[in-house]
Amino acid sequence: MSTSNFDFAIIGAGAAGLHLALAMCEDPYFCHKRILILEKLAKDQNDRTWCFWEKGNGLWDEIIQQSWSKGEFFHKEKRAPLSLSPYRYKMLRSIDFYEYAKRKISASSQFQWVEEDVQEVVNGAPIQINGLRSFYTAEMVFDSRIPTDFIKAEDSYTRILQHFKGWVIKTDYDVFNSDRFTMMDFRLIWPESTSFTYVLPLNKREALIEFTLFTSSLLQKNDYEVMLQSYINDILKIQEYEIVEHEQGLIPMSDFPFENYSVGNHIRIGTGGGWVKPSTGYSFKNCERNSRKLIANIKLNKQPNDGLIKMKFRIYDILFLDVLYRQNYRGPELFNIMYTKIPVQTIFAFLDDQTNFKQDLSIMFRFPWTPFLFSVVKKISHIWNKS
Fold it and tell me: How far is CA 139 from CA 6, 12, 22, 165, 265, in A?
């Protein structure tokens, strides 16, 4: 049994945990701190692909697999070109991020990485972390696990699942335009749903093709593959190809108050801390930004998660999510407005929580008001009934 006490413990070595560890690794403030990382998996597999946009050079440029300055959006039979400048859309394989983080962390003497399945965190001074193999103590704990209250779902919060199946395919002849990616293609959808395919070309003969849904329930395993096959055969007109990689995932999109489950020095991060954008499921850049904010707060002796959630944008997310939940068939129409009626640079800034109120209004006036007004009334009633 462990008797060592750490200054900081990070539970989970996913995007959030590793972003935080790497930010600590680069900051002299933490060079004499003892930092524990607890992760139940070996993190030696490519288990997902992260995509994000940013202006100019970024922290991860040396390990990204591909990036694009141009994209396209499809709705029904209409194609809308997307010129992203000054942004680039970047693709990063998780295994490359894991290996990069492991190299950095292993070279820093203040870190200890333990393969452990955490079962319970007991708040106190210090905080006790109970794992399957041992127990550990730390003065401050950053926990990426999803609170059990979310899984129980015995409340009135909105829950949508972003679920997807992807194949990296390879052909024997030039098929793909490697200069541009497909942000969303709604030409093939699951009936009455918000569902789309995106295409990330790695070169002219290889691409990641992923069928994605924003719905309340999952499909049967074979359904994802049928949709992928149909898209490749009927939309891309590719009949012969080799599947060289598979990936499948599920991301919760919800207005559940994850951030309220941070208590004292037990801080929720990542999906478990509400770092996933509720309306889109994007999280990678949020992990980068929020990790820097956490560290700045710690150094100022403030509550670590102070200021992470911008309430104005959380309200926008909640309303959009509620419309998708109640009228899931509207998703293609709403995203069509988003990417064809509004400059993509404005949308990226909005999704990064960086627009001002005037810009917010310019976006809102593009959308139909009726479904959103219903959501406003519904959410106000929810708050009123809880008070």
Answer: 7, 17, 19, 40, 7
Tokens for 46, please give them. Answer: 């490519």
Specify the pLDDT at position 381: 64
**In whole angstroms, what is the distance from residue 363 CA to residue 26 CA?**
38
**Cis peptide upstream of residue 126 (ω within 30 degrees of 0):** yes
State the pLDDT at residue 387. 45
What stretches in the chain show pLDDT beneath 50?
1, 387
CATH 3.30.9.10 fits 159-253, yes or no: yes
How confident is the model at residue 380, as a pLDDT? 66
- Please say whether the beta carbons of 219 and 250 come within 8 A: no
Instruction: Spell 190-204 as b/e; 16+ CB within 10 A means b.
Output: beebbbbbbbbbeee
Question: How far is it, in rounded angstroms, from Cα 304 to Cα 76?
Answer: 46
Q: How far apart are CA 293 and CA 7, in angstroms?
A: 18
Share of the chain above pLDDT 90, in %: 93
Beta strands 135-143 and 127-131: pairing type? antiparallel
CATH number attached to the domain at 5-49+93-154+256-299: 3.50.50.60
